[in-house]
Amino acid sequence: MGAYILRRLLLVIPTLFGIMVINFALVQFVPGGPIEQIIAQQQGQGDVFGSFSGSGSDMGLENNSASAGPQGDYAGARGLPPEFIAQLEKEFGFDKPPVERFFTMMGNYLRLDFGESYFRKADVIDLVIDRLPVSITLGLWSTLIAYLISIPLGIRKAVRDGSRFDTWTSGVIIAAYAIPGFLFAILLLVLFAGGSYWRIFPLRGLTSDNFDQLSFFGQVKDYLWHIALPVIASTISSFATLTLLTKNSFLDEIKKHYVMTARAKGLSERRVLYGHVFRNAMLIVIAGFPAVFIGVFFGGSIIIETLFSLEGLGRLGYEAAVARDYPIIFGSLFVFGLIGLVVGILSDLMYVFVDPRIDFERREG
Q1: Domain boundary residue among 73, 100, 118?
Q2: Nearest-angstrom CA–CA distance, 297 and 318
Q3: Counting C-beta atoms within 10 Å of the first and last residue's C-beta, which end of the chain has fewer, N or C?
Q4: Whether 113 and 187 share a structural domain
Q5: Domains held by the chain: number
Q6: Do 51 and 157 belong together in one domain?
Q7: Are residues 43 and 59 in the same domain?
Q8: Are 114 and 260 in a shared domain?
Q9: 154 and 100 in one domain?
């Protein structure tokens, strides 16, 4: 198993490299860029040179040439001095070919140097580290709660298939799956965050302003109080999918011959269910763990973080994409890709934990 894990870890490098190559190439064809953003802003403000009279370090552009996007003809820059445009191109790194920019960027990433944001005047690594706890909180808690609810509920639905319990819980699950996450989040805000009814939970943020002054248990309570609504909103769709997946997986296993044989030997229903069916049925559920975690961590976090005013990676990446802040875009993409690949390896380890008969090393050999 150790050799298999080592091979998977070594595969992380070329896989992550491929992800970055594809996305960097796609960015070259995206219209607009940081220079166009700056030109548009400055033309609207009137004073073109006011914000850029300083050096490259004042603009926060010293280490970002590798992350710059495509050059353009800057048709919107009519009336601006060509020297000013040329200076911007040099400071953003557009005077270098894309291939050189890409390999310079990847070389910096190997040293964990993600450069500096174009517009925030802060190191990308500091921004990512600052926002990472929020996204991990949403992804980890939502996935954990979804599994804690879905697995027992799915097993009970499989055992009582066709009963009244199975029918009404299926109705609730289908309704939960049909409700968009952002709409459910708005409903929670209106009902429980002082929108129109009760003000039970806070409207924004991950902690209170006086968090550092609270005791340990006070900090835990304050943290749980703040994440309650965002986590519930993030969990609803994954909870529905996992419950039905668990039920169907158990139903398939219950109908197999080895279950009938175990029952014929006189084993109790509980022993048959949890001693034989459970580890086989849970394999497909565990296989969905990376998809659930990454789905909440990547996709749902953008909307949830925006609605609940949480400063997470999803919101950071979205704002960077709108502003064409390429160092943040590629830096957060690198972190997202690395986390996704590591979670995939952890999923394989969970396979072995649930069913020791699985030997990935022998299968590869």
Answers
A1: 118
A2: 13
A3: C
A4: no
A5: 2
A6: no
A7: yes
A8: no
A9: no
DSSP 8-state class, residue 95: T
Give the domain range for residue 66. Answer: 2-118
Instruction: Please give the Cα distance from 158 to 195 (Å, whole number).
Output: 39
Contact (Cβ atoms closer than 8 angstroms) between residue 241 and residue 151: no
The two structure tokens encoding residue 45: 């403000």
* Interior/surface letters 90-116, b for 16+ CB within 10 angstroms, e for the rest: ebbbbebebeebbebbbebbeeebbbb
Q: In angstroms, how far is CA 47 from the centroid of its own chain?
A: 39
3-state secondary structure 122-167: CEHHHHHHHHHHHHHHHHHHHHHHHHHHHHHHHHHHHHCCCCHHHH
Whether 129 and 278 map to the same domain: the answer is yes
For residues 32 and 71, the answer to whether their CB atoms sit within 8 Å is: no
pLDDT digits (tens, 9 = 90+) for 292-313: 777 666 665 677 888 888 888 8
Please tell me the total number of residues recorded for the chain in this structure: 365
pLDDT tier at 74 (50, 70, 90 boundaries)? very low
My answer on whether 138 and 285 are in the same domain is: yes
Phi then psi for 223, rounded to 5 degrees? Answer: -65, -50
Span 8-65, pLDDT tens digits: 888 888 999 999 999 888 887 777 777 777 776 666 643 333 443 343 444 444 444 4
Number of Cα atoms under 13 Å in the Cβ half of residue 170: 15
CATH number of the domain at 161, please: 1.10.3720.10
3-class state of residue 331 by DSSP: helix
In DSSP terms, which residues pair with 199 in a beta bridge? 193
**Predicted model pTM:** 0.69
3-state secondary structure of 224: helix
Residue 352 and residue 358 in contact, taking contact as beta carbons nearer than 8 Å: yes
| Cross-strand pairs, 193 | 199
Question: In the chain, how many H helices and how many E strands?
Answer: 16, 0
CA–CA distance from 44 to each of 77, 322, 323 (Å)?
Answer: 12, 18, 16
Point out the domain boundary residue: 101, 118, 135: 118
